[in-house]
Write a structure and sequence with these properties.
By secondary structure, this protein is mainly beta. The chain has two helices and eleven strands.
Length: 184
């Protein structure tokens, strides 16, 4: 069976960025997803379309086809006071490189990376960590199969979170990718 729309696909992959391995599937634990539901980068899916189990493909995605360019307006200084929890500064998360979940004025969740901690402000970068990066993938299709009722029951996208997480909204499945309940 070939990779196609609404098929359950499993792939082993390695992502290299700037000559370093940035991410990869674990041995015996391929990345599983439902093809064509917006869970993965469109150009990633395009590169494996019509491939069969055992086929390998290597491809490069420029920033515009990956996570976009770095946008200066997504790097902001926030008052340090917003990092107060129960009247105390949350110093355990206030360090350069720390990723902090936040919400904007409309309640949209986003992840920010601390770039600098000042006396009164914290410089946060809300660009995707891979923004501006060229992504080099090596992918092997492990399996392709028809969907089962169980695949659709786990929020419709196959990410396995088991809840109505708003799949297909925004740039992913909508699950909390930082608590281990999400797809890529």
């Amino acid at each position: 069976m070939k990779v196609a729309q609404n098929k359950k696909v499993a792939v082993d992959y390695k992502l290299t960025v700037d000559g370093q391995i940035a991410d990869q599937s674990k041995p015996g634990q391929p990345l599983e997803f439902i093809f064509g539901t917006g869970m993965l980068l469109p150009k990633f899916e395009e590169a494996i379309l019509d491939k069969e189990p055992g086929e390998k493909v290597s491809f490069t995605l420029e920033p515009k086809d990956g996570y976009g360019e770095v946008h200066a307006e997504a790097i902001v200084d926030l008052p340090k006071t917003i990092f107060m929890v129960d009247g105390k500064l949350a110093e355990d998360i206030l360090f350069v490189g720390s990723q902090v979940p936040m919400s904007d004025a409309e309640g949209h969740r986003m992840m920010g990376t601390i770039k600098e901690v000042g006396e009164e402000t914290v410089k946060m970068d809300f660009n995707h960590p891979m923004a501006g990066k060229t992504l080099n993938f090596e992918v092997e299709v492990v399996s392709v199969r028809d969907l089962t009722p169980e695949d659709n029951a786990s929020c419709g996208c196959g990410c396995g979170c088991g809840s109505d997480c708003g799949c297909g909204e925004g740039d992913g499945c909508g699950c909390d990718e930082h608590d281990g309940h999400c797809c890529h």
